[in-house]
Amino acid sequence: MVGNAAGPGYLQPTQEEERVQVARILSKNLIPLGKLHRSALVVLKEFPRFDRNALSELLAEGFSLLPSLPHTQHDLSRFASFDDYKEAKNRNGRRRIERHLKASTNPGVAPIQLEVRDSGEGAIDEIYELYEKTFERASMSFERLTPEYFREIGRRMPDRARFFFWRQNGKIIAASLCLIEGDTLLTEYLGLDYTVANDLKLYFRVHYDTIDWAIKNGFKSLVSTPLGYEPKLYLGHELLPVDLYVAQTFSSSMNSFFKWMASKIDPTVNDPVLERFPNFRELRTESKKE
User: Fold this and answer.
1) What is the helix (H) or strand (E) element at residue 28, kind and residue range?
2) How far apart are CA 51 and CA 10, in angstroms?
3) Which of 10, 51, 98, 123 is the most exposed place for a label (fewest CB within 10 A)?
């Protein structure tokens, strides 16, 4: 697997000519490297659409292109404040935001404070307990992380990692791990205390507070992970297509059959909510070089 285990992969160079050169090197060497390590498959994991033209170099070497389960994106570049974000919604949208926030700000509800840090130290056990509760409730999920993951990502990437904590009466009732990529804030992992989450509309409070913090700190977009598409559609996200490049390492004579087989396991066809996003068709927009 080539890419980022915790999110989308990226080609590092910014100049298109250099990006094509990197893709060409990958296309010539990945399958031989896979054979050397006795791997049946070589996969480039979740590369964004803007890498497609450069990575089309892989297609001539036997790789198949598949849409992966898309991330979602919220454009924040138009907003100077959360009030701007709210006012940009239609009347029903503004009412929904007010209703969601009212659940956690009503008189009689203990105040909720947001704390943002570059490390989870001192709160790893609480973070992980909430993460596990959310992980276990998911109908579909990926790898289960460990407490060490949350501890080490703060130690190794303090410039990129941001831990969001929501406390009520001193107790953490929600936690989110985000990563920074330029002027984009990527929301990666979420944990909620489900004894209060529904009453406080905590999922939405987390989302709005994150948007508020991102705008105040100069971020231009918010990117969220795959799955959980229903509330993201409801909140105004668009799909952010990401691609898989997959090749078998047995024999070049099997490429045609493998391309046909790969086309039958498109993961995006099994979630009907995806079709309701306004830019759903972009998931299958073909590369210029295919």
Assistant:
1) helix 16-36
2) 7
3) 98
Q: Is 83 exposed, middle or buried (0-12, 13-18, 19+ CB in 10 A)?
A: exposed
What is the rounded distance in angstroms from the CA atom of residue 175 to the CA atom of residue 160? 17
Domain residue spans of the chain: 2-70+241-284, 73-238
CATH dotted code for 73-238:
3.40.630.30
What span, in angstroms and rounded, lies between the C-alpha atoms of 134 and 188?
13
- pTM score, whole prediction: 0.81
Reported confidence tier of residue 289, pLDDT bands at 50, 70, 90: very low
Which three-class secondary structure state does DSSP give residue 58? Answer: helix
Question: Which residues does 139 contact at the CB level (< 8 Å), separation at least 6?
Answer: none
| Rounded distance between C-alpha atoms, residue 46 and residue 57, angstroms | 16
Closest CA relative to residue 191, chosen from 151, 134, 111, 245: 134
Residue (of 289, 188, 271, 261) closest to 233 by Cα position: 271
Task: Return d(Cα 268, Cα 265) in angstroms, integer.
Answer: 9
Q: Using one digit for the tens of pLDDT, what is the confidence trace for 128-151? A: 999 999 988 876 666 788 999 999
Nearest residue to 85 via CA among 189, 250, 207: 207
Q: Is 91 helix (H, G, I), strand (E, B) or coil?
A: helix
